[in-house]
Write a structure and sequence with these properties.
The chain has a single domain, classed as Nuclear Transport Factor 2, Chain: A (Roll), CATH 3.10.450.50. The protein is 26% helix and 42% strand. The protein contains three helices and six strands; from the N terminus they run ααββαββββ. A six-stranded mixed beta sheet has the order 2-1-6-5-4-3. A hairpin with a 2-residue loop joins strand 1 and strand 2. The longest helix has 15 residues. The protein is globular. It starts with a helix and ends in a 9-residue tail after the last strand.
Amino acid sequence: MEHELRELIQKCDLAIQQEDFDTLMNYYTDDAILVVRPGMIARGKEEIKKAFIAIAKYFNNSLVPAQGEMVILETGDTALVISQAFLKADIKDSKYSMERRSTYVFKKDSHNAWLCAIDNSYGTDLLNK
């Protein structure tokens, strides 16, 4: 049986692919952060939604994210997810890697549902300045 976070991340990937950013925002905490690119962070659902719209445009509205191997470290109401992330898009050259080792932090809300608090598709690559 797959961990519920893997299934949730797959739902997020599908929402990104379909550019259904309203649904996508349902999976984020109100104070979540998204690493848009190294050195640029979107804070809160409004900024994150705007960032995803810009990201979709950058990738010619053809972005298809997918996850590979995944490690989920869970304690109490918090989980760290380390995942291979693969991006496909109709774009010739991107200055950003299309294969990443992403890190995500999820928290459970008052209804015991997982929500993304930190979305960092660049993972430890943020250390490479």
